[in-house]
């Protein structure tokens, strides 16, 4: 078992949903709870101490290259040492394979956008350039938001799109997106206003959330309905 700052990763045997091959892949077994001091950025992702942790959320079949969230792979009782291992590839590249698998299987743009965003965060955690990932995530998220058939939480994803625009340097686009965020997003009004201000000031840097917003968003007991985005 590999332990990185209270996160632990362990080889686990899984079955490929595409070709039924059994293989071993790293799986995340423990993850410390979020506290107000946990590093969470304004695009609402937790910064992980190592790219290998995020990469363990995705599994890649060594037989057919099918790559997707590990939760789509059924666990198997065989000892991981007795089955073929997953290919050793660079952590962010796993997300590129997952995007490819998604495209080959007609996944929705939102699924592709979320994989691309994780690829972006994983690249940053690996100390690699992340700009192309951001571009890919933005393109897919834009498609998802344009899809009239899609009935996800648009308001929430307009916020995420706002952050993608801001971090890509499209400050006008970011403000337009933040203006589309309403109460259905379940996001604190303070957060949306904060990111709007950062966009207007032309700041594209990733931003850490202050502890009180982390607490409000990620420590549910403390969540107060009053501070959610109010009806305009
Ligand atoms: Zn397979």
Biggest sheet overview = 4 strands, antiparallel
Mean pLDDT rating: 94
N-to-C CA distance: 51 Å
Uncertain segments: none
Number of strands: 6
- Anisotropy-based shape: globular
**How many H/I helices?**
8
| Unique ligands | zinc ion
Structure description:
The chain has 232 residues and is α+β, with helices and mostly antiparallel strands. Helix content is 41%, strand content 12%. The chain has helices at residues 51-55, 91-104, 109-125, 131-146, 154-167, 171-179, 189-200, 211-218, and strands at 2-4, 7-15, 22-30, 58-60, 67-69, 74-75. The strands form 2 sheets. Strands 1, 2, 3 and 6 form a 4-stranded antiparallel beta sheet that branches. Helix 2 runs antiparallel to helix 3 (109-125), helix 3 runs antiparallel to helix 4 and helix 5 runs antiparallel to helix 6. The longest helix is centred in the middle third of the chain and has 17 residues, at 109-125. The radius of gyration is 19 Å and the shape is globular. The structure holds zinc ion. Zinc ion is lined by residues 16, 18-19, 21, 61, 63-64, 66.
Give a summary of the structure in a few sentences.
By secondary structure, the protein is of the alpha+beta class. Helix content is 41%, strand content 12%.
List the defining traits of the structure above.
binds zinc ion; four-stranded antiparallel beta sheet; two-stranded antiparallel sheet; 232 residues; 8 helices; single chain; alpha+beta
